[in-house]
Amino acid sequence: MVMEKFNSIVVGLLIALIIGVFLSPFASSFPDGLERVAEDKGFIKSAVDSGFPSLIADYTFPGVENEKLATSLAGFIGVIVTFVAAIAVGKAVARKESR
Amino acid sequence: MHIPDGFLDTKTWVSAMGISSASVGYGIKKLKQEFDYKKIPLMGVIAAFIFAAQMINFPVAGGTSGHLIGALLAAAIMGPFSAMIIMSTILIIQCFIFLDGGVTALGANILNMGIIATWGGYCIYRLLDKENALHPFALFVGAWVSVVISALAASIELAVSGTIPFSVVIPAMLFWHAIIGIGEGIITVFVISYVKKVKPEMLENGGNGNGEV
User: Fold this and answer.
1) B53-73: per-residue pLDDT in tens?
2) Which of A78, B35, B145, B168 can pair with B124 through a Cys bridge, CB separation 3.0 to 4.6 Å?
3) Residue B191 falls inside a structural domain
């Protein structure tokens, strides 16, 4: 039982990693709906850089020449960080004892 | 649909931040009463999956792309309170690590994609599927609505900020997101059908599933 549960989590996480690492470099680079509207209606230039120091701005791992690889690395880190963060949040909010 | 810094004025982003904080705070309070610790691993997997899926922009039409939001996907599997928390977690990570969505706009992005998308989509889904049986049609419509209502909220915030008039931004945003919402619907139905097939016990009683994984 314990093993089965473990397997489902691993499979789910693997699927997320495959998407984040292997599919992400092939995502469309067209502007998204909001960016498109901002371009068409002339307010895209209102956007400013938050100036927040980030390690992996725009899903591009710094210092990696190959653009696709930089995106894959960003995807890998993002999936792992999100998984760990959501588990931590779940632990923080879950009831202490099971039914 | 991540709003960058600079699109919203101070009164708008501060208000949005206030509404989001209150809503997420209420969600956490509700979860503390009802969230079973057995669902924790599932929460992690769903959040990781939605993060990854959000990276995959798909072209829609005329040189525009869209990507999954995932609010209804999370709500249908985990319930709307968990979905709010999952979406907020993802948006916070995207904001601070990937600079996707502005820091001042974070409250608005959580409001649009974490709260309004979740509840708007979930209410429509449950209206069409009272038994919470994960009926594909209800999921599709709920997912579509979640994107469109989220776009409407973003439009209102932009207009209230004085960035662009209501009459210009609302039709334009609704036009593109009505198309992007079709993708949201297809992905949501596909993913839930897949989970239903390979891991039905996870989805027992639909969104009230015991979360056994």
Assistant:
1) 999 999 998 899 999 999 999
2) B145
3) yes
Give the sign of the dihedral formed by CA B28, CA B122, CA A30, CA B47.
Answer: positive
Nearest by CB to residue B51, choosing from A27, A78, A93, is A78
**Chain A partners within 8 Å of B4 (Cβ):** 47-48, 50
Domain of residue B140 covers 10-204
Which chain A residue's Cα is nearest to B92?
A: A82
Q: Are B83 and B69 in contact (CB under 8 A)?
A: no
Q: CB distance B2–A34 less than 8 Å?
A: yes
Q: Is the ipTM of this complex over 0.85?
A: yes
Concatenating the DSSP letter of every residue in B74-94 gives: HHHHH-HHHHHHHHHHHHHHH
Residue B20 lies in a domain: yes
A94 contacts B31? CB cut-off 8 A: yes
